[in-house]
Request: fold
Amino acid sequence: MTFDLPHLPAADGTYQLSINESAPLHFPTPGAALSYAVKLAQQREQQGLGYAINVEGGDGKWRLFQGMMRRTA
Reply:
């Protein structure tokens, strides 16, 4: 599953999150969009499935979000 979070808001002022290149979901803040993506990614990880959260920076470059580093015991 791939999540894409653009840097700039949409024309309506919301922040979009696309999942697997489908129609985007709209959120009031970029943090809300990222939190939703992280929640879904955690669910996938618990199921043994993969994911990638791509976040566009202010410089226009896309980067892989690595805020969910897997904990090792």
The chain is about 25% helix and 25% strand.
